[in-house]
Each structure stands twice: as C-alpha cells, then as structure tokens.
Amino acid sequence: DRQTLVAVLQFLRRSNLRESEEILRREARLLGDDLGAAALSPASAGLLAGSGSEADPGEALLGRGTGAAPGAIGGSVATVATSIGGAVVVEDQPDVSAVLSAYNQQGDPTLYEEYYSGLKHFIECSLDCHRAELSQLFYPLFVHMYLELVYNQHESEAKSFFERFHGDQECYYQDDLRVLSSLTKKEHMKGNETMLDFRTSKFVLRISRDSYQLLKRHLQEKQNNQIWNIVQEHLYIDIFDGMPRSKQQIDAMVGSLAGEAKREANKAKVFFGLLKEPEFDVPLDDEDEEGENEEGKPKKKKPKKDNVGSKSKKQDPNAPPQNRIPLPELKDSDKLDKVMNMKEAARRVRLGPECLPSICFYTFLNAYQGLTAVDITDDSSMIVGGFADSTVRVWSVTPKKLRSVKTAADLSLIDKESDDVLERIMDEKTASELKILYGHSGPVYGTSFSPDRNYLLSCSEDGTVRLWSLQTFTCLVGYKGHNYPVWDTQFSPYGYYFVSGGHDRVARLWATDHYQPLRIFAGHLADVTCTRFHPNSNYIATGSADRTIRLWDVLNGNCVRIFTGHKGPIHSLAFSPNGRFLATGATDGRVLLWDIGHGLMVGELKGHTDTIYALRFSRDGEILASGSMDNTVRLWDAVKAFEDLETDDFTTATGHINLPENSQDLLLGTYMTKSTPVVHLHFTRRNLLLAAGAYSSQ
User: Fold this and answer.
1) Which of 228, 243, 260 represents a domain boundary (last residue)?
2) Which ranges are annotated Acidic residues under compositional bias (predicted)?
3) Tell me, what DSSP letter sits at residue 566?
C-alpha cells in the first residue's frame, strides 16, 4: 500500500533515521520527490503515531497495518503474546487466569450479533468455491465471541447471541455446544476443561490463498476489528496455494475439537514397514501324511521346505532398522509358537469377495456384571472378559482346561530332567474352564493377552493397570501412573512393552519390568479412549474423545501423525497386517481408512448406525471386519478400498482428498445378532472370524 509506505518514510525522516529510510526507499524503488508529493492520509498517520486516531492504538493498527506485517499473515505467528497491564503473557501456557484475560479487549457487546451476522451474510453471498471454505470460520468464531461476551459479564447479550446463532452450526458440534451453553457466567469458565482447550490450542482451518485474501479484504474494509482480532489471536489459518476445496472434501476432514491438523503435523517420515522375521529351521512332521498311508498308498514326497522362517528375506525399504528400539529376544517357546503359526498359515483360507470368512460368535449370556472388555489370544485358545463388577474372567475356548502351577512344596519333588517337566509342574486339581481374577476396585475397561500367552493385562476405572500371570492366575504387578480411569491397554506384538490410555488425556508406554512408564504421550485434548501398537512395534496409535487419532513414535515420544475427520469420540483402531494402513471407528458410525506413509485419509466406510467398538483385518489383509453397538458385524473389501490410491504430491500437500462416493461397493456382507452389541473381533490363524459381545435384553 503506497500511502502507508510514504507515511513510514516520512516518519523515519522525522526521527532522523536516514539510513533506514534509504534502505526502505531502495527496496520500494521510491525517489525523493515522491515522498513530499504524496499526502499523508489520516489513517496511516494514526497508525504510526498511535495517538492520532480516536480508537485505541490496536484497532488503528488494524485498519491497514496488519496486512503489511509479513509475520501476521496466515496465522504464522506461533504464539501470540497479549500484553496485559504491562506483563506479556505467552498464549501457549494454559495458566487459567492468563488464558482467560486474553478476552479483555472489549468490543461493544451489543454489536457482536451484528458483526457475526455481517460476516455470515458476506460468506453466504460469496462464490460457491469460497463459501465452503470460509464457512469453516462460523464455529470457532461463534465459540470465541460467545466466550468473550460471557467473560466480560454481558450475560444477556451472550444468551441472545447463543440462541440466535447456535442453530447454524454443523450438527457434529452439538455435544460441544451443549457444554458451551452451560457456561453462562465468568466463574463457570475457570474450571472448565473444554473451555480451556479451546482457548489454549489454536483452532486450525485449512483455507486456499484466494479465499483467505477475500476474507481479509472484507474484514479490513468493514473495519470489523472484533472478528479480525479473534482470527489473529485464536485461529491458525493453514494457507495453501491451489484450488479451494469442495464442501465434501472439507466435511470429510473437519469435526475435531481443534479443527483440522496442520499440514506440517503429518510431514515426518514414518517407518511403516514390517521388521524382518528371524530365521530358524522348521522341523517337518509327518502328521499330514498319516491319513494317506493307511490305505497303503505311497507317501507323497513333500517339496523340501528350506527354513520356512525365511519368507521375508528382503528387508522392507519402509521398515525401521531392526535395532531402532530394543525388542525382547525370542525364547525357544516363542520359536515353537512361530512354527505352529506357520503351519496354521499354510492351511489358511484365502479370503476375498468370493470367499467370505465364517463367523463364530461368542455371546456372554447373563452377564449381569456388565461386560466392558474382551480379548482373545493370538492362537485363539483363551478368551478374557473384563467386567463392571471389577472382575477379570478367563475362559479356555479349547477342550484343554486352564491349570495353575503346583505349589512350591510340590514343585521341589519333580524330576527337573524329565522330558515332560512342563506337564508335570501343572496341578491337575486346579483344572477348570474358567478362572476369575480379583484385584481391581472398579470396572475393567481394557484387557490384553501377551503374545506368548503367559501374561494378561487389565486396566480399570481405579486408575491402575494390572499384570496377571496365566501360570498361577495371580496378580504380579499393579502399575500406578494414571490418576483417573484407564480406558484401554494393549501389549506390543513382541511382548514386553505395553501401552495404556486414560481420562488424564495421555497415553503411557510401559515395560513389564518397570514400575514407571518409559514414555508419556501428551497432546490429546480429551480422554485417550483406545490404544494400538503398530505391527512393527515402533509406533503407537491412540484414539481420543477429542475426535482425533494420533500416531506416536515409541523411540522419542514424538507425535508423527494427526488424523482428523471423525465426528465423535474414537473407540476402535486396527492396523493392516502390512503396516501401511490404519482403520478407525467412532461413535459417528463411520470407519475411516488412513494411509500412514502419506498421512492422508483414503477411504470412508458408511453403513453402521451406532458406535463401532471393534475393527480387525483378516490375517492377509484382504478383508476388514467391523463390529458395532448396532448389533451387526460388517465385512468390507480391504483390497479394493486400498487399490489405485491417488497419493500424488498435490493431494498430500493440500489435503484435496477424493473419496469414492459410495462405500456400498466395498461392503461384502452384514451379519445381525439377535440383540448382542459387538465388543470384540478376532481372526484366527486360519482366518475364521471370532466375534464377542454380551446379550442385552431390551
């Protein structure tokens, strides 16, 4: 703006800052005589003197100046320091009084409705391509203007503002608005967490440069300072160059407590490949041939398998280095189990649209204790239920009963050299189908078997995670770190490490032999409702009630991905067996699919009508099963969902995702239960699908 420039030059000349004046003039290519010729406009004089205009200096500065300051554009100022009574308070510290006092700049309370409806009118009358993008402003501005009115004790104005405009907000913000409507006095704001989150974390909007320029011009022409202040202070506008996004593209990505994720948040490199399997020889047994020999036929020669363990000879280029995080050594029993696993895998059914899995449903009958968690061992031999009466119950699903180890006195009598020592140490008198574990003092919300089936984890409302031995069926350790309910816990696929997440908004990484957590993953703005390890154990995914999913690096505790798009709290997570994709389910009844490497949403599966509590990929990743509170299990074609993905650089850079219109093409089957919400799903090693839930008599 030429006039502003001239004014600045004159100011520099008056202050005898010749050198600066020269530099600026050279930059702007202005010659000496231009300077005197251009008259100094009153607005820019006020802008420089800070006293020449009647309005307060901040507002005068806004008239033209904000556009000129390069740092202020696009919210690229990371922390806005608001100067309050001489002290500078940096916005990022959630110190309650400091955070709230940022609401001190008062506009005329009676004009708030006018400001908002003026902006609304402007946005609704703008071109279609800009309207969708600028409509994202409605919700954060509505909240901040309402809170500003409440903070400055204009209660009646706040009430009428809320009533007039809350109906215009998107339906997925209903729950947040309900909380907001209960904040009607300044005192209410002090202890309210939702409120504080909204204030301390900048709401992120992703807008194209054209739409942003349009908005800026409008606000500056209208001198609409109240709204511009909020945009500058409380919103982070992530500007991209290119076409504005369509309504569908925006709707797919928004809806979380703090808006979308910044594009920077999903740029870090993620090693999503699988670790190389250790190699060992597999002894061939003749079980398979016995049947044929009875009729005197010659034995079929089996092709000689050179150590089956070497199926992944080549290192996956996207895999993390083998020693990136220390993983436990394989014990002999683990190797034996791997061999069993490979034999089972050889008999595995190849699933696909033409060959759907059979589903075996375990219904918990008369579960008056209230079933709150289920897990099934990898080899499908045991099932565990966590209950609201604070018990953990373990069942054997095979004819083999559950037995405890003998007492110390009896163990001393055993010949330790005998071949069947592992059988002898078990006490036959204790054999039963069900074992009940007592120890928690509140509902048990999460359970997880260790991969070697020796241990079981459970987490509870009492704030603890407990580690149980499945040899003695007793509690070995209680891990205390969370001070509030712990909603979920899960063992690493390699054992030893486990993760827990709870009401205190953080996830913690533990090792079974440490009392204290090894890592604390903080960043979510609400409860961490579910946790999952990546198949290579280097990353952990957490889903939260703030409607986002985050991926954390176990090595350094950094958050490497933030996925937004769900419209309700996340309740289920599943990684694809190849480690490239993540499926997430929430209370909004949608399953979203994410490409981890590119940090993009690549699919949306619609069909469920209630919260999705269970997600699982089949063993080879061809099928995704989802289980919901709507009493159905649905099967989706995962191969089709992930083929032909458009992940070019432009899409990655701007988030122009193109989801297929109809997810019904991917739905392979829907299976109803009579009246049993589905709480857990599990594919056996041969791809039989096991489901579990408690019958509820409505």
Assistant:
1) 260
2) 282-293
3) -
- Predicted confidence at residue 43, as pLDDT, reads 39
pLDDT band at 97 (very low <50, low <70, confident <90, very high): low
Q: Which pLDDT tens digit goes with each residue over 398-450?
A: 988 888 888 877 777 777 777 777 777 877 888 889 999 999 999 999 999 99
Within-domain flag for 52 = no
CB atoms within 10 A of CB 630: 18
What is the arithmetic mean of pLDDT over 362-380? 88
Could you give the number of structural domains in the chain? 3
**DSSP calls for 77-117:** -SSPEEEETTEEEETTS--HHHHHHGGG----GGGHHHHHH
Tell me, yes or no, whether 637 and 538 share the same domain.
yes
Q: Is residue 139 a part of any domain in this protein?
A: yes
Asked whether the beta carbons of 659 and 603 are under 8 A apart, the reply is yes
Percent of the chain with pLDDT strictly greater than 70: 79
Is the separation of the CB atoms in 391 and 436 below 8 Å? yes
Same domain, 22 and 122: no
In a domain? residue 104 = no
Asked whether the beta carbons of 231 and 171 are under 8 A apart, the reply is no
Cα R_g (the chain), whole angstroms? 31
Q: Are 515 and 493 in contact (CB under 8 A)?
A: no
User: Tokens representing 384?
Assistant: 């565990």
Comparing 198-202, 295-299, 561-565, the range with the smallest average pLDDT is 295-299
CB atoms within 10 A of CB 690: 22
HEC string for 307-373: CHHHCCCCCCCCCCCCCCCCCCCCCHHHHHHHHHHHHHHHCCCCCECCECCCEEEEEECCCCCCEEE
Report the range of poorest mean pLDDT among 44-48, 122-126, 257-261.
44-48
Give me 120's structure tokens: 């609304």
Nearest to 461 by CA among 512, 498, 490, 502: 502
Q: How many whole angstroms separate alpha carbon 400 and alpha carbon 469?
A: 18
Strand order in the sheet with 539-544: 528-533, 539-544, 548-553, 559-564
Best mean pLDDT range from 11-25, 49-63, 341-355, 651-665: 341-355
Contact 501, 507 (CB under 8 A): yes
155 inside domain: yes
For residue 523, what are its two tokens?
A: 């960043």
What is the distance in angstroms between the CA of the first residue and the CA of the last residue of the chain? Answer: 69
Task: Give the CATH number, domain containing residue 178.
Answer: 1.25.40.500
Q: Which two tokens stand for residue 328?
A: 């436990």
**For position 188, what pLDDT does the model report?**
76
- How far is it, in rounded angstroms, from Cα 698 to Cα 630? 13
Reported as a single tens digit per residue, the pLDDT across 187-198 is: 777 766 666 667
Helix (H, G, I), strand (E, B) or coil at 263: helix
The proportion of the chain whose per-residue pLDDT surpasses 90, expressed as a percent, equals 34
